Structures are given as C-alpha cells and as structure tokens.
Amino acid sequence: MARVIVDVMLKPEILDPQGEAIASASARLGFPAITSVRQGKRFEVEIDGPASETVLTEVREMAQTLLANPVIEDFELRVE
Amino acid sequence: MARVIVDVMLKPEILDPQGEAIASASARLGFPAITSVRQGKRFEVEIDGPASETVLTEVREMAQTLLANPVIEDFELRVE
C-alpha cells in the first residue's frame, strides 16, 4: 500500500479568478505580505501494493483522464 | 520573493463523496490499482521578500481565515 499525491494546477497562462479573489481579499483583510495566489487541486491516491513503474503509469493515465483537464491544467505526481 | 504551498485536506474523519466518486470511476474505467482517493485543495501563495517566521505566521493566519475551514479541514504549509 502506497500513497501517490497528484497536484493539479491551472497552466501559468490561464487566468485564475479564484486565486485573484483570494489575493485581493488577503490585502483587504490585513495580510500585506501576500502578493499573489493560485488555486489548484490536490488528490491523495492510495494504491494497492508498492508504487512500481507500472502502477505509477496507471495513476498518471487516471490523472490525465479523471483528475486534470490537460487543455488548461498541468499535473504532477509524487510518491509519499 | 518566495512561494509557500498551502495544502488543504478534509480531516480524516470527514466523508469525501467527491473522492469516493473518483475512486469508483477509476475502478470502472480500468484502473484497478487505485483503492481510494481523497480530494483537497492546493494553493500557491507568493510572498513579498523571504519566507521569514513573521511572514509564515501571516500566511498561516490567512490560510486559517480564507483558505481552510478549520472545523472540517486540516492544512499544511511548506516553503518551496
């Protein structure tokens, strides 16, 4: 049993209105050090058995199909 | 200029129907290695200047106020 973390973020060239709203709320609410925020998704995927190359390929395919929209999002896998 | 990552996940005792939906879709769509999925949020927070203790305290307060609901969610900070 292993855990793979999949981080999904909007591509840098895609506008992120949610992140912008958080950044401007931060400034208004007294957190001046924060200059920008981007919001994404984080998935904790538990897999059966060890994180072999085959299993990681399967998780990568699953992430591409179900977790991320490859047109506007990038994703990264890491084994924890 | 530094970047702080804030990971927000539902507390372990809180049900995650979105994650469960992803896990059962994975099984159905031919990704048998995946046994469970939990979905959370990931924020990339850019800060002015270096990630000093004062600034990290500010980001922690901001995360608690704006990014996470401490009743049902846990969050973690890490400097990147």
UniProtKB/TrEMBL annotation, chains A, B:
It holds the Pfam family PurS. The keyword Iron-sulfur does not apply. It comes from the Bacteria. GO terms for molecular function: ATP binding; phosphoribosylformylglycinamidine synthase activity. InterPro entries: PurS, PurS-like_sf. This is Phosphoribosylformylglycinamidine synthase subunit PurS. It comes from Allonocardiopsis opalescens. It is an enzyme of class 6 (ligase). Part of the phosphoribosylformylglycinamidine synthase complex involved in the purines biosynthetic pathway. Catalyzes the ATP-dependent conversion of formylglycinamide ribonucleotide (FGAR) and glutamine to yield formylglycinamidine ribonucleotide (FGAM) and glutamate. The FGAM synthase complex is composed of three subunits. PurQ produces an ammonia molecule by converting glutamine to glutamate. PurL transfers the ammonia molecule to FGAR to form FGAM in an ATP-dependent manner.
